[in-house]
Structure formats: structure tokens, C-alpha cells
């Protein structure tokens, strides 16, 4: 197989693929080879698959099984090769001794923290994917990265095992590290009590069980310390915001219960997906508006803030919260260049048409024909010879009417929330249709939520949306010292920043979240911000050496630390626009494929880019602006 591996036996089968025992003819060693069920059809998908597996091959951690190789078979089926482990997994292991429970939870939390620091979410933590070696004491390793996804991606797909899915994952939300924390809580409960806490015969029944309160672990097993029972209960909180902030917090709380635990103490994990802090008022306003929409008062909500203020994180958190309540959420990210009419709306409909009840809702609206050009599968065609020219105004009214009937029927089943990040760059045709939709569905359980970058040009259709009676603007103010203190505590963990340090950072950053994160990265690189087992060690005040003259200066300084090909790749992407096809970018650079893939991995780890479905996207618009400004005339 793959011209290198001789398959010897089947080790196991699962929902994602089949694992074989194989012999590596090149390295002369026994390996575990997993062949995924999915197929890669297009060249673009093949390049993306190679990129993802190449990144995983470079993940090395003592508590993770080592991924050694990857490939795509001639039939288009991807596979990856792992070290072959002796021992057993925890499936059906029953109730474990408490010291072993603590060891397993600590090891898995450490492995997950390592993955999260590099931008990955595992998405299938469960007993069958935790391995115990036959040594004494046993070594614990986390297995199976076939469902791993980049943080923030994967929306619209449900991956993992139903019993261990977080409630928000039942609604096909994007990958978020907190889904792994939830699964870790299910794992901890199961190996402590001997049985999975959630029993059900389908997704709906399991979801109801997860939203109910479980018996506390110290009630089910009296010798369990109350502090450990609280930790597991927090991990199992239905609301993502109520769970521990990160794996480092889990390790710290576990160390207070069971004594020192081996852990990889990386501060970079928290900076990758910073907590939403200091935004209690804004999130509260959004919750109130979403609740009004759920009661049949359609709303249009707009988060308005300068670049770097954290509006996308607030937007993501608000939509994650509303998704957990059972709302049907569809999200679009307009490109801002090369836009086609209805591009943004078609992206939203691509998700909506796969929601529960969408088939019946579409039928009641008159079928796919009622949506016309709005339907994602609608072909663009000119009138046939002899066919009278169509009236574009009449056609648009028919499409808008079909859209309103479809959404109203969908909202009659569950509240519908349409999210558009950077709505100011959405195409005008989509904005016109959304305005018509809100006007026709004022009494529906419908909400539109968009983010707007302050200072951007507002198109006429967006202006009309903003001026609607049902529209609400939610501005994000710069962080002050109290909000910054909350951000540091919720992002980095236990710490006591001095009033002088908070004032220094606010003064240097103007309260801009993105700039604050760059200052923190600078402090970590210089070693003046470090982690101890009891929390984070902070300086009393900000050293001028840690303060770049501007956000642009901070970004340029980080760009200077990346390799030459990575810098060329990022520059080419900035010239092309904010995003591009992966294969197009590779062709422009003309570099060897392996070198190009390594450059993408380096840029992704540095949080300069994001990759998804064969596309590469600049992580933040400020990165592109800084690069564009640095280009020669």
C-alpha cells in the first residue's frame, strides 16, 4: 500500500476508517496504518489533504501517538501511518483507580493543550482513542487525528462520536477547543464511574441528556474529592463559556487535587484563540436581541468597531451561544473582492438548505425554482433563442418572495440566525435580498447579525439595512484597565497584574485587542511573561522594549522571523487579495510542493494565515494592509 507498506492484519474498524497492522518496508518496522473512508476527488482537495497531514506529521508530543507518514491512494482515499502501540485502549475499561483517573485526565489535557496551541481541535476524544501501555506505571497517549480540524473551521459538519460530542457540536458548529474540553469531561466521568454518563438511542435523546444536570461524581462514587467532582462538572457545562478556559486551567486544578502533574506549559495556546473578556455588556445586548428574535420579533444586529477591536471573536461567541439554544445558524464570510451577485446569500443558503426541516420548508416555498438564482445549485443561463427577455425586476421580486417563504417556514420550526462577518464587503445583491427578507418576515423568529469595520465605506443597500426600524448597532469600545485585567485573567489564567502594568498596556495599545495580543507575544518571546504551576508571572510594569511603535511595526517584526518562502507566500497572498485557492498560490510561487506545504504550516502556526477547503486566507485584514504598505511602489 502506498508503495511502501505491507498490510498484515486488521486492527479495528470505525466510523472514520479502518486501521491495519502493517510493515514499513522502507524503515523495517511495524506500524499502524489508518485508511479513511472519505475520498479526495479534486486536485485542490488532494493538496489540502497533504497540507493537513503534513502539519500533523510535524506534531510531536510525548502524550500523543506519533503520526509518521501520510498519502493518498490511487482510488483517491487518504491514509496516514502511526506508530504501533502495545497495550490497550480505555474502551470498556470500567471504573479505574483514582490515581490512574488523574493520570489519564492530566495526560489527555496536556496533549490537547499542545494541539490547541498549534491551532488544532481533536474532535473525537473518547476512551477508544486513549491508549494505556503495558508498562508499569502505564504510559498514556491520545490517538486518532482523523477528525482533527483547525480551530474555527469545520462548520456545517458533525465529526466525532455522538456520546462524547459537546452540545454545540450537535448543531455542526465550527471547531472550538472547548468541544475537546467537554469530551474530556465525558471521558473523566466514564473512567471514574465505569459507565458513560449519556445513554440514548439517537442524537436528539443524547442532546436532551446533555442539557440536563448529571449526578455529581462524589455522589456516584463517594471517595471522589469534591474538587475533582466540580472540575468534571465544569467540563460538562452545556454552555461553552461556563467550561474551564483551556487545558492549562484543567491541569492547574488537577494539580491542586492530585499533586504535580506533567504538563506542557505553553502560553501561546491562549493567545491563538483569546477569551472574550470585557465584553459583558455587548454580549448581554446581543443575547437580549436574539431572545426577542426567538419570540417572533425579527432583528438585525450590527457589531461596529475598528480593526483589531475583537468584533469577530464577540460575533463568534454570540453565535455559538445562540446555536446551543437550538437556533439554526448559518454564517458567511464575504471575500470583499471578485464578488458575484448573491455570493454571500448563496453561502448562507448552502448551510440553511442542510438544516433539519429544510426539505419541507423549501417544498412549502415552491421548491428550488422559487429561489431562482439564489439557490446554490442554480446554473447561470441566458434566455434560449426565441424566449422573451426576462424582466429582471420581476425575477428579483419572485426570488425575494421565495426566499421569504422558505426562511419563514424554517423559522416556524426553529429560530434562524444569519451571521455575516465583515458584512460591509458583502455583495449588494445579497444585501438587497436580506433587506427584503427582513421586511417580509418581521414577525418571524429571525435574526441577522453582521460585523462592520469602523471607517469602511457603507454601500447603499447596507445603509438601508442599518436604517431599518428593527436594526440595532452594538459598538465595541476600546478596552480599559478593568477589561484588560479580565482579558489577562481569562486568557492566561490566574494572574495579578499591577495597576501600572494594566495602564501601560492600555496606553501603548489604545485598548485595541489585536495590539494587546502582539504586546503579549513580544513579552513571551523575551521571557518577561512566563507560566508557573500556580499561575502566570507578570512584570510590575511594561518595559519599553516590549512595546512596538505601532501595530504595523509589531507585525513586521514577527514577519521578519519567518522563512523566506513563507514570507514570499504571504506577500503573494496579500497581492492576490485576502484569500486565494491553494493550488493557485502554489503555481504562482513555483516552489517544490513539500516546501510550499511547509511554508503554509509555518504561516499558520504564526497566525498569519488560515486554511480551509483548499483555500488560503490572511488571518486578519491588518496583516494584508501592513504587507501591502511595505511593497515597493
Defining traits:
single chain, 633 residues, alpha+beta, 5-stranded parallel sheet
How are the elements arranged and paired?
Elements: E1 5-13, E2 17-24, E3 29-36, H1 43-57, E4 67-72, E5 78-83, E6 87-89, H2 98-117, E7 120-121, E8 130-133, E9 140-142, E10 149-150, H3 177-193, H4 203-211, H5 217-220, H6 226-235, H7 247-258, H8 268-272, H9 280-294, E11 299-305, H10 311-324, E12 328-332, H11 343-352, H12 358-365, H13 368-371, H14 392-411, E13 416-420, H15 428-440, E14 446-453, H16 460-466, E15 471-475, H17 481-492, H18 499-509, H19 513-525, E16 530-532, E17 535-537, H20 551-559, H21 564-576, E18 579-581, H22 582-589, H23 593-605, E19 609-612, E20 615-618, H24 621-630
Parallel strand pairs: 11-14, 11-15, 12-13, 13-14
Antiparallel strand pairs: 1-2, 2-3, 3-5, 4-5, 6-8, 7-10, 8-9, 16-17, 18-20, 19-20
Helix pairs in contact: 1-23, 2-3, 2-7, 3-6, 9-10, 11-15, 12-14, 14-15, 15-16, 17-18, 18-19, 21-22, 21-23, 21-24
Amino acid at each position: 500500500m502506498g508503495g511502501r507498506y505491507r498490510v498484515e492484519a486488521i486492527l479495528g474498524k470505525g466510523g472514520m476508517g479502518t486501521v491495519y497492522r502493517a510493515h514499513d518496508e522502507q524503515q523495517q518496522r511495524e506500524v499502524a496504518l489508518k485508511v479513511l473512508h472519505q475520498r479526495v476527488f479534486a486536485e485542490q482537495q488532494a493538496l489540502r489533504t497533504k497540507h493537513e497531514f503534513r502539519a500533523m506529521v510535524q506534531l510531536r508530543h510525548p502524550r500523543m501517538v506519533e503520526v509518521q507518514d501520510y498519502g493518498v491512494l490511487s482510488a483517491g482515499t487518504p491514509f496516514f501511518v502511526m506508530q504501533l502501540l502495545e497495550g490497550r485502549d480505555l474502551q470498556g475499561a470500567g471504573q479505574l483507580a483514582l490515581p490512574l483517573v488523574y493520570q489519564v485526565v492530566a495526560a489527555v489535557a496536556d496533549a490537547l493543550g499542545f494541539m490547541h496551541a498549534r491551532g488544532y481541535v481533536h474532535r473525537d476524544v473518547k476512551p477508544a482513542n486513549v491508549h494505556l501501555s503495558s508498562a508499569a506505571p502505564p504510559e498514556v497517549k491520545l490517538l486518532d487525528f482523523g477528525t482533527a480540524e483547525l480551530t474555527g473551521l469545520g462548520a456545517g459538519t458533525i465529526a466525532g462520536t455522538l456520546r462524547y460530542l459537546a452540545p454545540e457540536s450537535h448543531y455542526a458548529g465550527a471547531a472550538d477547543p472547548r468541544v475537546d474540553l467537554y469530551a474530556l469531561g465525558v471521558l473523566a466521568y466514564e473512567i471514574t464511574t465505569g459507565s458513560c454518563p449519556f445513554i440514548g438511542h439517537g442524537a436528539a435523546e443524547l442532546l436532551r441528556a446533555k442539557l440536563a444536570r448529571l449526578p455529581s461524581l462524589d455522589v456516584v462514587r463517594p471517595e471522589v474529592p469534591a474538587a475533582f467532582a466540580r472540575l468534571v462538572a465544569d467540563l460538562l457545562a452545556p454552555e461553552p463559556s461556563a467550561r474551564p478556559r483551556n487545558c492549562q486551567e484543567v491541569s492547574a486544578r488537577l494539580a491542586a487535587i492530585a499533586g504535580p502533574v506533567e504538563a506542557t506549559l505553553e502560553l501561546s495556546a491562549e493567545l491563538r484563540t483569546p477569551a472574550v473578556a470585557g465584553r459583558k455588556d455587548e454580549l448581554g445586548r446581543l443575547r437580549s436581541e436574539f431572545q426577542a428574535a426567538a419570540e417572533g420579533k425579527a432583528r438585525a444586529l450590527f457589531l461596529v468597531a475598528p480593526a483589531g477591536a475583537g468584533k469577530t471573536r464577540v460575533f463568534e461567541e454570540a453565535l455559538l451561544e445562540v446555536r446551543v439554544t437550538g437556533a439554526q445558524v448559518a454564517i458567511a464570510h464575504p471575500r470583499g473582492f471578485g464578488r458575484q451577485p448573491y455570493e454571500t446569500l448563496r453561502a448562507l443558503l448552502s448551510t440553511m438548505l442542510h438544516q433539519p426541516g429544510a426539505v419541507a420548508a423549501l417544498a412549502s416555498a415552491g421548491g428550488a425554482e422559487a429561489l431562482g438564482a439564489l439557490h446554490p445549485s442554480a446554473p447561470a443561463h441566458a434566455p434560449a433563442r426565441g424566449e422573451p427577455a426576462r424582466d429582471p425586476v420581476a425575477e428579483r421580486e419572485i426570488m425575494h418572495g421565495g426566499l421569504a417563504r422558505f426562511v419563514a417556514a424554517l423559522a416556524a420550526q426553529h429560530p434562524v440566525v444569519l451571521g455575516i462577518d465583515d458584512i460591509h464587503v458583502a455583495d449588494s445583491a445579497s444585501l438587497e435580498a436580506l433587506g427584503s427578507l427582513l421586511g417580509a418576515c418581521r414577525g418571524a423568529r429571525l435574526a441577522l447579525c453582521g460585523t462592520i469595520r469602523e471607517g469602511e465605506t457603507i454601500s447603499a443597500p447596507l445603509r438601508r439595512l442599518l436604517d431599518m426600524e428593527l436594526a440595532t448597532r452594538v459598538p465595541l469600545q476600546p478596552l480599559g484597565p478593568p477589561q484588560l485585567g479580565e482579558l489577562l485573567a481569562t486568557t492566561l489564567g490566574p494572574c495579578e497584574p499591577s495597576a501600572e502594568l494594566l495602564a501601560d498596556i492600555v496606553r501603548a495599545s489604545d485598548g485595541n485587542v489585536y495590539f494587546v495580543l502582539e504586546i503579549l507575544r513580544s513579552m513571551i518571546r523575551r521571557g518577561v511573561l512566563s507560566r508557573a504551576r500556580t499561575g502566570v508571572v507578570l512584570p510590575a510594569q511594561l518595559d519599553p522594549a516590549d512595546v512596538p511603535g505601532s501595530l504595523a511595526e509589531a507585525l513586521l517584526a514577527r514577519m521578519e522571523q519567518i522563512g523566506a518562502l513563507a514570507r514570499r507566500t504571504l506577500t503573494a497572498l496579500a497581492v492576490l487579495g485576502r484569500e486565494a485557492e491553494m493550488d493557485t498560490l502554489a503555481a504562482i510561487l513555483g516552489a517544490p510542493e513539500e516546501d510550499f506545504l511547509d511554508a503554509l504550516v509555518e504561516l499558520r502556526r504564526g497566525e498569519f494565515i488560515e486554511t480551509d477547503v483548499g483555500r488560503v486566507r490572511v488571518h486578519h485584514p491588518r496583516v494584508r494592509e501592513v504587507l501591502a504598505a511595505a511593497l515597493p511602489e
